[in-house]
Amino acid sequence: MRSGVLVVDKGRGATSFDVVAIARRRLGVRRIGHAGTLDPDATGVLPILVGEATKLTPYLLDQDKEYLATIRFGVTTDTHDVSGRVLAESAVDGLTQARLEEACRAFVGRIKQVPPMYSAVHHQGRRLYELARAGIEVERAPREVVVSSILVEKLDGPRATVRVVCGKGTYLRVLAADLGAALGCGGAVESLVRCRVGSFDLREAVSWRELTEGVEELWPRVRPVEAALPGWPVVRLDGQAAATFGHGQPADVIPAAAATEGYVRVHDLAGPMIGVGELIAGGGKVKPVRILHADRPRTRSLPA
Questions:
Q1: Which residues are within 8 A (CB) of 203 and not within 5 positions of it... i.e. 6 or more apart?
Q2: Which of 74, 148, 258, 297 could link 92 by a cystine bridge, Cβ 3.0 to 4.6 Å?
């Protein structure tokens, strides 16, 4: 069994689960998932985690994301994008780049967002979008999210193109609606592209056409599992220590790690990543947090 990360440029109209199903069929691997849902109307980077790489999903979800959004001001919809039912329309008067940039500054940093009804958030065992389609609206508690930056790249009449870098759980549709409300005219997302997830960039992604129509083997495009954790400190263990780690026990780090605490990527001396560990004992030991097995060669035990 092979493992790794396939970075896909999701096509417009497809769900994230559609991408998983196609990748599962193309790669011939059952254990597969994605790291971070994209709305059907959005396009861009969707990391597909294959095999043992699925164990690294929480760490990839924690990495920042970059979006390019086109917002149409002067319209408010029930989905916070232009494909939704229009609730209100307003004239967009006196909107300048300086005024828009000033409004954006209030949404940079740790901010509160109310999850949209058309979202995959669970409420009493059901997805919010299921309730919304049934005409049911429920109260949602605001959630804290982190927006690192908002750059206004273009303003053309009622439309603005903004580049946003943010943390997990941030809804760009909600950001557009809240920004429109702050400007007094309403706003909704007209198009949305996710340009980056962590170090995974759109320019290096498998195109939608390659994924859905291509006949070439996809495995050469699958990156090793450690690509999901770029920049993490690395600890390498010899055979005995690697075996100890693989059995779920803290292993000796010889020589001791340069850091004394924190999470690290754990590799055996031959190179493959065998898990995520936490340094303890001043960097002299590493405790297993996630153990990866699939890519490790094993010795077959034959009967005598």
A1: none
A2: 74
